[in-house]
Amino acid sequence: MKTSCVLAILVCVGLTVSAQDDSQEIMCQLCVGLAEEVQDIVRQDFPLDKVEEEVKETCHMWNVIPKLEQKCLEKFLPIVDEMYDKLNSTSPQKFCEFLELCLED
Fold it and tell me: May I ask which residue range the UniProt record assigns to the signal sequence (predicted)?
């Protein structure tokens, strides 16, 4: 949880400093950050409802950017099951590429 707070703050600062970043890159960074948080939970064998709780909390921290919290919830809450399953065997970057939120390396 502390990691997600720090991540959210760093993302917000980064967004403020470089407002010219492409929205694709911003969504990629946010997706990878969230996927890393979820992967930590999955690796600790927490139940699925803990993943859903983490997604909600992390998305809520993004409310400092207009409409971003809602976009986050709309994008990630419906796929919590898939996140739980895929992040057992896939890197956060690859998962976000699969969602087409990050460009393939």
Answer: 1-19
Tokens of 88: 């057992």
Report the candidate in 56, 45, 42, 80 with the shortest Cα–Cα distance to residue 4: 56
Q: What is the DSSP string of 35-54?
A: HHHHHHHHHTT--HHHHHHH
Alpha-carbon distance of 39 to 51, in angstroms, equals 9
Structure tokens at 96: 């976000």
Whole-angstrom CA distances from 56 to 11, 18, 20, 60, 104 are: 17, 26, 27, 6, 27
Long-range contacts formed by 95-99: CB under 8 A, 24+ apart = 95/31, 95/35, 96/28, 96/31, 96/32, 96/35, 99/31, 99/75
Q: How large is the average pLDDT for residues 4-16?
A: 49
Express each pLDDT in 13-39 by its tens digit.
455 445 445 678 888 999 999 999 999
